[in-house]
Fold this protein.
Amino acid sequence: MQPPASPRRVTMTEVARAAGVSPMTVSYTYNRPERVSRESRARVLEAATALGYAGPDPSARSLRYGATRTLGVVLGEHLTYAFDDAQAVAFLAGVAEVCAERGYGLLIVPTGAGEEDPTRVVSAAVDAYVAWTTTADDPVLEAAVSTRRPVVVHGGPEREGTSLVSIDNRAAAHAVATEVWSGVRHPAVLSLPVDRLRETFVARGLDPDTVPYPVTRDRLAGYRDAARDLGLDWSAVPVGVCSGNDEADAEAVTSQLLAQDPSLDGMAAMSDRLAVGAIRATSPSLRVSGWDDSHLAQQHGLTTVAQDMRAQGASCAAAALGGQVADHGDDWRVVTRASTGG
């Protein structure tokens, strides 16, 4: 997969002229932003947007090859997440495996909600991007696409100018919720964040269509499908939203759910870590399911959704570096264990 032909690149000098600053100020805006005042940086970025300037061309830094021979991973999380979260570790191992096979380096570009994130992305000396799941309106994703380099998104969103690698989260959620909620009267959901604000809250019958994060949205839709098929009232189902994939946060949110409704008897959690947090906050009688089939699922006897994050990472990297986009839609299965009576 080669990037499409692009029109003449706008130069740094043209941006400087439009912004009323020196070319050095434009360069510092992208490469050393701490040396530029907030006002000057704002003028530069405004002029760059108006002119369609995506930032310095990283390939110019590797004239010997005409390319950087580096793949960028836009993480969308704190950098430590790449080493602390088991699924992120597996995903990045798959990406790294492909890079090693093809003689590419790997650059992790951590982003959060900072105004300098898009600049960090377009300034990355990479030939292509793999983006961790994000929202359709994330400026970081738009920044990656604006470079006209290949962009492969894991999990979503699906948008023009990118490729998507993901399992069918909605179908998997329907299947695991059918297992955990069979025979229950008071189900609940323990959710991953719904948007980039990552706020913690509890809401009944949360409408999946209002959720910006595609993975969370699709899993909520699958849970809703299962509730309706089981004759349960989705509008009465409490959804506890956590700020991240964190056991302590999940324990606190589960305690809040139980304080509101002590009769809860079936909890569908969007990760194994969240499920373990739920178990810590409640009695063994609560039916609980997780997601990922990690070592925690095996340790705690969790019914869960198994998926191969390493294979998905490898597929993302291969597609970004010119290969075909692999279909992982059906590459999942429900593993039934003791937490749901299995």
